[in-house]
Amino acid sequence: MKSIIVLYLFALLLILSCINQKTANNTSTINITGKIKYCIDIERNIRNVKAVPLSDIGGSIDYIVLETTPNNSLRSIDRVAFSDSFIFVNDHTKLLKFDRHGRFVRQIGSYGRGPSEYSYLNDFFIDQDTKNIYILGAGIILVFDFHGVFIRSFKVERNVTSFDLSDTNKLLLYPFNMPVNAINTIERPYSWYLIDMNGTDILKIPNYYKRTNSPGILIRKSPLYSFGNTFHFMEYGADTLYRLRSFKPEPYALFRLGEMKLDYDPAITKISHDDKIFEQKLSISSIIENKNNIFFRLNLGFSDTLLCGVFDKNTLNTYFPAGNVFRNDIDGGMDFWPEYTCNDTLLVDCIDSYVFLKNFRQISMGENKKQNGSGYDLNLTMKYPEKKKELIRLAESLKDTDNPVLILVRLKQ
Questions:
Q1: What does the pLDDT average to over 383-399?
Q2: Which of 390, 404, 298, 299 is nearest to 356 (CA)?
Q3: pTM to 2 decimal places
Q4: What ranges do the domains of the chain cover?
């Protein structure tokens, strides 16, 4: 089971470097235009590890405790989305709606096989303009309003596992990527599908890297996000992040891994899995972006070990925060790594309540001199020591079994 999870995690990677300029099945040719805007040299800067205070990227911090009731316990958090008045959270089995204070409002949709139900919740997105919610199930997208009322549904590719929504009413779909071989004979010629809100194809973007090794890696998710109202995406095995402009993929950022890059089609055997060389190879698992920075995560070999890196868009420097976190010098509480962005002004992390309480007790007892083996001192001067009282009250209100806590960091004005 563990090996499956490792392959599953490692599955989040690179979908699209040099997009194949000829598409299959008589679809039109895709022209790649434009110059790469950013060069992110990971190989050269991999040893540029430093303790980074949270105040370097944010000006304030807030915490939202998601209310726990017998009917809304979350196994984990797969995605968080914010509207003006609400927070939406999913854990693959259900989508929950909370107000901006964390009070539970309702569940959106329900588990099942009926016309308005989902047997599995792969992904979801909210449209703040129309107040509609799009839920990606198994081969179908279900549409609800913010009150949880079912509106309609439409079919999509059976193997789609994640998607993104643009403000131009287009959806970009990612079907999972797996090698085509004697075991799996289903060929998946495309990495991405751009569709309209009825499920009609607008554009198909082909795979560039053809994988055939067996047993190989199943790539369930690959970097995909919207920034500046534009889709950004990367194919597994690639080193180039693309953006979609005027229905054309355009190179956006080059992630230079050099000799450290993991092969795009590794065979997962006991020999390769235990090979020390593979333990040093890197692959990109996730990317998010705001106006100042590109935040990315790297997988180390076939393990679930992650390295967190930052590209500063203003200085064009690449660095790796020690301990894979930003040191919380704002209120002295939990350290922070952004998992999500919201409206380019908010960075969001989430932490299980029992982990929150454990870390808080360590901080309160002065035991947290070192974290994650990083070996650096945590004695930071707090910007707002008066906020420590709020943190204490929050910790006193929590139980280990409560739903996760959201940590919100607002950018400096």
A1: 87
A2: 404
A3: 0.86
A4: 47-230+263-282+322-410
